[in-house]
Amino acid sequence: MRDAPDGGAQLWTTGRVVLVDARGRTQIGQDSRLVVHPATDFGAGPVPNAVLLGVEDEIGYWALRSEHDGAQDDWRDLRTGGGLLNDTDAGLFTTAVGLLGWHDNARYCAVCGAATTRVRAGWARRCTGCDREEYPRTDPAVICLVHDGADRILLARQPIWPPERYSVLAGFVEAGESLEACVSREIAEEVGVAVSDVRYLGSQPWPFPRSLMLGFAAIADPSAPLTPADGEIEDARWVHRDTVRAALESEGGAVDGLRLPPGVSIAYRMIKGWATWQD
């Protein structure tokens, strides 16, 4: 479909457009569905800046950058609105944010510096100088739930987060590094403890701007001293399962100085899964 000879004109004629502003927000209706627009409202055929997100029930879904000024309350980003959407709408929104963000930052060739143009319905860019094709990037990042093998979990907070917000630890994978090695290195760098029994849990696309979060669990010794990374981790502490459960029940409120991450995030799902798991 991305390489259709007509450039996607057939999908455009009956297609729908998701608008995303420069801050990664789109309009979500009172029915908790994406607000989409007839593609022909924007032109008789695919406009140059449109990207094809996918097709469902023979309807093509496209995305365009919007000049929305942020005045309306029903425009939300993925953090505040993603949890309201069904799987299809969440996938469309996530893909739109990631793909449009990549185009914003890939306008020039990394090899020769010449301008690039959109091709393949927005899923590649071709250099006007050396004819090289470039594709959307995804940066892998690990996020790890560290526990003691019993009833305590290690949570930390960054200084830029809202007051009392704590979460599990995360970091980007470096070149030549396995995911498991990244887990061990990041935990050691951020809080100064060694982990074992690293195992994979699941993943979540996280286009801020182009990450793929890969979730893991690992075990650490709660008696080992915690050494938060200067300037990166403001505080780290072990928290009992009962406190985490109470924070979950508070639905965003703080319990004993603990406020959990938003429900749309993989971090929240990892913490909830651990807190509610039974032997």
TrEMBL record:
Biological process (GO), any one: NAD+ catabolic process
InterPro entries assigned to the protein according to its UniProt record, in alphabetical order: NAD-cap_RNA_hydrolase_NudC, NADH_PPase-like_N, NudC-like_C, NUDIX_hydrolase-like_dom_sf, NUDIX_hydrolase_CS, NUDIX_hydrolase_dom, Znr_NADH_PPase
Segments forming domain Nudix hydrolase: 136-262
Keywords: Hydrolase, Magnesium, Metal-binding, NAD
GO cellular component, one term: cytosol
EC number: 3.6.1.22
CDD domains in the record: NUDIX_NADH_pyrophosphatase_Nudt13
Pfam families assigned to the protein according to its UniProt record, in alphabetical order: NUDIX, NUDIX-like, Zn_ribbon_NUD
GO MF, one example: metal ion binding
Cofactor (UniProt): Mg(2+); Zn(2+)
Reactions catalysed, as given in the entry: a 5'-end NAD(+)-phospho-ribonucleoside in mRNA + H2O = a 5'-end phospho-adenosine-phospho-ribonucleoside in mRNA + beta-nicotinamide D-ribonucleotide + 2 H(+)
EC category name: hydrolase
NCBIfam families per the UniProt record, alphabetical: PRK00241.1
Similarity field: Belongs to the Nudix hydrolase family. NudC subfamily.
Protein name per the record: NAD(+) diphosphatase
Origin species: Saccharopolyspora elongata
